[in-house]
Amino acid sequence: MRSPEDELAELEAASLRRHLRAVDSPQLAHTQVAGQSLSNFASNDYLGLANHPHIKQAFIEATELWGTGSGASRLICGSLPPHRKLELYIATSKGTEAALVFANGYATSLGALSALLRKGDTVILDKLSHASLIDGARLSGATLRVFPHNDLNKLSKILEQTFSKKSTDARVLIVTESIFSMDGDHAPLADIIALKQKFGALLLVDEAHGLGILGPTGMGLAEQLDCAKGIDLQMGTLGKAAGVAGGYIAATKPLIDLLTNKARSFIYSTAPPPSQSHAALVALQLIRSPEGSKLRQKLWNNLQTFADATQTPLPASAIIPWHVGPSAQALELSQTLQNTSALLVPAVRYPTVPRNTARLRITLTAAHSTQDIQTLAAALLHHTA
Ligand code: PMP
């Protein structure tokens, strides 16, 4: 039997071993690591809401009113007002009949895909889809097909093959992210919707990295492109730009009813604390308010500053991949930036990204100052010249 030590040694040898870093301050634009203050370019708290006073206050107030725990799964104990209000607000903001909230985004993907699909169905995923979507697809027992990243021709061919031989009641679900988590680029949503309509497939779009960033009220890429109506299942997380935790699906009432009945990560899991749901509601309200627009503007100004300072194109989202290649080199660059310039910029490696495409995953937020961005840009240019 292989020992855990042997397995860890293999990871170490391939520069793929991970270590948890101890952080001694809140996740702000600057963070304390081993006594050193680092500029934090690792967080998905794109608008800086994880430490916003109103959202913190909302968390505290809901705890006072509703307690710390929800007691059981909602199918056992019922839905408290914070759960119900959050779902109503998500549905209204996304323009759907209903929504369902899970404890986190991972549980949402896993539960939704495994509930919607079964053996005989087909799920067609973009190659760069997040691990949670792949895991949900695998768990479902459906036939799993993958199309090369954003390759519409290949997607169309797979749809053609699938529809030519599928049984009449079999479901076909296309799955993509709106903003890809490790590359920061956009999916061609309007074209994907046209294809799904042509064939009569279903479409699930994960807006994990679009929420808060894009669209007139920050609802994501679908809102920006005005194509949300063409998406059957709008998914996302409340743990990134919303600064709290939780995951959601917004869809028609029958689809949400079906998920409530069949999504095992919803049914067999204690409901999120009422404070989490209430704080997420206040965060979403803030994202859609004039203050949210200002924070979005600040984020996009920061992205422009980075583009100017590095003489690169304006990034498509808050995620900027700085490509390196070999895992060992990406780790080394990340460490050098920390040691020489007090920058926290994580290296991402296989299996999070394909082999030999290791990179620094830089995330900018509305909380960074122009000086923070310029220091980062200068250090990157200096160490990768
Ligand atoms: N989908 C995508 C695209 C993600 O990047 C993530 C988080 N890494 C998730 C889903 C999971 O969300 P959560 O962190 O809320 O579990």
Outline the structure in words.
- This protein is α/β, with parallel strands linked by helices and 385 residues long.
- It folds into 2 domains: 4-51 and 290-384, Alpha-Beta Complex (Aspartate Aminotransferase, domain 1), CATH 3.90.1150; 53-288, 3-Layer(aba) Sandwich (Aspartate Aminotransferase, domain 2).
- Helix content is 45%, strand content 16%.
- It has 15 helices and 13 strands.
- The protein has a 7-stranded mixed sheet, sandwiched between helices. A 3-stranded mixed sheet has the order 1-2-11. It has a 3-stranded antiparallel sheet with strand order 10-13-12.
- Strand 4 (122-126), helix 6 and strand 5 (143-147) form a beta-alpha-beta unit.
- Helix 2 (53-66) runs antiparallel to helix 12 and helix 4 (81-94) packs parallel to helix 12 (274-288).
- It is globular, with a radius of gyration of 21 Å.
- The model has no long low-confidence stretch (mean pLDDT 97).
- It binds 4'-deoxy-4'-aminopyridoxal-5'-phosphate.
